[in-house]
Specification:
The strands form 4 sheets. A 3-stranded antiparallel sheet has the order 4-6-7. Strands 1-2 form a two-stranded parallel sheet. Strands 3-5 form a two-stranded antiparallel sheet. It has 2 domains: 196 residues, Fumarase C, Chain B, domain 1 (Orthogonal Bundle), CATH 1.10.275; 266 residues, Fumarase/aspartase (Central domain) (Fumarase C, Chain A, domain 2). It is mainly alpha-helical. Helix 1 links the parallel strand 1 and strand 2. It contains 19 helices and 9 strands.
């Protein structure tokens, strides 16, 4: 299910981790661009200083959670020095309990890098050599096998991170840089990496964070930003194919309802439509005072989604500046328990994005359906067919689009409102943020295909408006999409390859790239 290949800007070749955290761009560079990871001198110093605090506490007789006690509901048991290395190994082994399909490589790399980011903050008490091993594994292209199910999004993404920690110990399975899954110990040895031998607190620190859900949020934001621009373009193409009016996109109409996303979407559409010979014909053969909501309100719906993305960016950036662990090492030498591992802040925005994306998919499908209905398309042939009746045209392409929208609506049901108590009622409220992230990835994949179907229908509709000249940006899209193997109007043919080519065109960022030389950079 490694499907999120929407183009990303040029990534840095090396990312340096310091105590101040990292950036959205760095996460994507490591997860998708295979950027190398290095630890800064201040991070190594902070790691060493925090470790001295943990070692001092470990030498004392008083129990300290995660250092000299059991975990979760078993925290009441004091663990003597002779069993503490075993304690840390055991938490990793026992918590590596995931099941189901493998999680995508980019997700695993993101969660490993984000865990290393928190470790490098100096608030976890992990030794510098363990952090360096984490960086070495990333740089070697070794990706632990992580499974779909196992995280409740509270006490962090425990099972996914445990599978990663297991690989650091030289246990479990991992994928090598050549894509082959082998025992992790063999892969470490092949790259000259010594397995780590965990000491007090280190096992717990490696698996007690919101890193999986945060990594998926960051990548979702990057994908959705590109998809919303693509959706503005296809909405403009549909308006043009339907002979709609661009007057509703005038900036003076949007400044009086000053939602930033709405204004950005309207401006995108207006720039795509500049110079069109198709717009403004809504009063000709079948007079209309106003276009339908799916056409006229496109900036309002897409704009609301854009503003949702902006809020999600705020949450992601706050989380990137955080050190999520329990207990944490504080600068004054205290090691304190806390609840910062609860995934609610991230889970909420993951669900929020799924709702916004589902609504964008819904309005996109409505425009496609309007293009295909001869009673509402203002002169286009039924289903954009060559010889309607003999040919079915794009009838079933809309069925496929509708099926994708229907699944998106189901996936919009929030995961974060669910909670199943665990750990003998010690962890009696959980976030389900990992589940929210997983369904959002499917939602984004569906939305990409939905936008591709609208692109396919709208470009065909424009080409069927004989005698009218499309906007220069529309002409650029049509030329690019045809060059990419998406065929234009004509008799019925095997449709799936055309739809797959349109999907690849949107997914690669080629749609936006085709337009921007004409329009200038779009929001």
């Amino acid at each position: 299910m490694d499907m999120h290949t929407l183009a990303n800007p040029a990534a840095p070749a090396t990312v340096v981790l310091s105590t101040s955290g990292t950036t959205v761009e760095d996460v994507i560079a490591v997860a998708r661009g295979n950027a190398r990871v290095e630890l800064s001198a201040d991070a190594v110093g902070a790691l060493a200083a925090a470790r001295q605090i943990v070692d001092a506490l470990a030498a004392k007789p008083e129990p300290v959670y995660g250092v000299s006690t059991g975990f979760g509901a078993l925290a009441t048991r004091h663990i003597g020095p002779e069993l503490r290395a075993q304690l840390q190994r055991n938490i990793v082994r026992s918590h590596a309990a995931g099941m189901g399909p493998r999680v995508e490589r980019e997700v695993v790399r993101a969660l490993m890098f984000l865990r290393l980011k928190t470790v490098a903050s100096g608030h976890t008490g992990v030794r510098p050599e363990v952090a360096q091993t984490m960086a070495d594994v990333l740089n070697a292209g070794i990706t632990p096998v992580v499974h779909e199910y196992g995280s409740l999004g509270c006490s962090g993404d425990l099972a996914p991170l445990s599978h990663c920690a297991l690989a650091l110990m030289g246990e479990g399975d991992a994928e090598g840089p050549d894509g082959t899954v082998r025992p992790a110990g063999e892969l470490l040895a092949a790259h000259g990496i010594a397995p780590v031998e965990l000491r007090e607190k280190e096992g717990l620190a490696l698996l007690n964070g919101t890193d999986g859900m945060l990594g998926m949020l960051i990548m979702a934001i990057a994908d959705l930003k590109k998809l919303y621009t693509s959706a503005d373009i296809t909405a403009a193409l549909s308006l043009e194919a339907l002979l709609g009016t661009e007057k509703v996109l005038a900036p003076e109409l949007h400044v009086i309802r000053p939602h930033p996303g709405q204004g950005a979407s309207a401006d995108n559409m207006l720039r795509v439509l500049e110079g069109s010979g198709l717009t403004g014909h809504h009063q000709d053969d079948a007079p209309r005072v106003q276009d339908a909501y799916s056409v006229r309100c496109a900036p309002q719906v897409a704009g609301a989604g854009r503003d949702t993305i902006s809020y999600a960016i705020t949450v992601a950036e706050r989380e990137l500046a955080a050190a999520v662990d329990n207990p944490v090492v504080l600068p004054d030498g205290r090691v304190e328990s806390n609840g910062n591992f609860h995934g609610a802040p991230v889970a909420y925005v993951l669900d929020f994005l799924a709702i916004a994306a589902a609504d964008l998919g819904s309005i996109t499908e409505r425009r496609t359906d309007r293009l295909l209905d001869k009673n509402r398309s203002h002169g286009l042939p039924a289903f954009l067919a060559d010889d309607a009746g003999v040919d079915s045209g794009l009838m079933i392409a809309q069925y496929t689009q509708a099926a994708l929208v229907s699944e998106m609506k189901r996936l919009a049901n929030p995961a974060s409102v669910d909670s199943i108590p665990s750990s003998a009622m010690q962890e009696d409220h959980v976030s389900m943020g990992w589940s929210a992230a997983r369904k959002l990835r499917t939602t984004i994949d569906n939305l990409t295909r939905i936008v591709a179907v609208e692109l396919y229908a709208a470009t065909r509709g424009i080409e069927l408006r004989h005698g009218l000249t499309p906007a220069p940006a529309s002409q650029a899209v049509i030329a690019a999409v045809r060059a990419a193997g998406v065929q234009g109007p004509g008799p019925d043919r095997f449709l799936a390859p055309d739809l797959a080519a349109a999907d690849a065109f949107v997914r690669s960022g080629a749609l936006v790239a085709a337009v921007e030389p004409v329009t200038g950079p779009l929001a």
